[in-house]
Amino acid sequence: MRSRKRVLAGAVCGLVLATGGALALTPVAGAAEGAIVQAKRHYAPGMYIVVLEEGGAATASASAIEATSADLARRYGGELSSVYTATLHGFAVRDLSEKQAKRLAADPAVRTVYEDGTSAARTCRPTRPGAWTASTSGTGRWTASTSTTPRARA
């Protein structure tokens, strides 16, 4: 009689552990979602540029940025395509659904998620001597020049 109780108790414990393990591996239905900055015209669906939150261990060095980028891309189901370690700290990822991208945007290590695409600038003017100017013509070509002439102060 005792051995039957032990077998039954063992089977119940095994079932509970197996079910609990399976439940722990399934994603939470109500996982947090963040906002994505939409592009005016995007290159292809599923491509995003991710900017990491500054000031933590994730952006302390180029190798930390690379490791964090690879981890986030893998964790949210995308494929890492580029890592940015100089001008901005972040990465480009592809093959993400919009829902996966929104979940990535809600991650505490992420500052902003941008849909990869194009935007248009009409004119940029220098704010100080030596700054650059750029404008687009009707053909969509960029022209740029630098100015070394100081502006007169008002």
TrEMBL record:
Residues 1-24 form the signal peptide. Transmembrane segments: none annotated. One of its GO terms (molecular function) is peptidase inhibitor activity. The keyword Signal applies. Residues 48-117 form the Inhibitor I9 domain. Residues 143-154 have a biased composition (Low complexity). The keyword Signal applies. PROSITE patterns: TAT. Gene3D superfamilies: Peptidase S8 propeptide/proteinase inhibitor I9 (3.30.70.80). Keywords: Protease inhibitor, Signal. Residues 120-154 are annotated as: Disordered. This is Protease inhibitor I9 family protein. It comes from Actinokineospora soli.
